[in-house]
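Molecular record:
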Amino acid sequence: MWDERYSTDDYAYGTAPNTFLADNVGALPKGRVLSLAEGEGRNAVFLATQGYVVTAVDASRVGLEKAGRLASANGVDMERVHADLAAFELGDTYWDGIVSIFCPLPSQLRKALHRKVVGALKPGGVLLLEAYTPAQLQHGTGGGSSADTMVTAAMLRDELAGLDFRILRELEREVIEGRYHTGLGAVVQAIAVKPV
């Protein structure tokens, strides 16, 4: 599905970064940042322009190729890793930051990934996340049609046990990101820190 979605010349979710990430990028410590389910590169390229050492992981080769072109067009470099998040090893106490922007995974896979995220952050490392909540199904402005791939603040608090939340909130906001995220969205936003 993702290779097909990314196979057009335009960028499915645009080339500008997610606004929650752009507004809060200063919360991420400078250093190595992992961007999960990065797709065509908009968030990873933004992070690279801000001076981060970025690794973008995605299951779509087509998306990652476009991410490379977007990085070149912006005069930055980043590591691109083609991998299924079910099998991808995040490492142990390695990342200064991890970014998860609209990463729609089945709940069992998401829970396992979030356990890995907690272990993969360095002490003082930060997770920045935005995702759709199940209330998004009422809007139909992006995020698919399965509540199982959506998440609430309460779920995140449970799945990311071991992190301290600086921000954890559910809200409705206009999400205007390319063709597939356009209109009022029901989202959860989180910034969480691994204790030192």
About this structure: The chain has a mean pLDDT of 96.
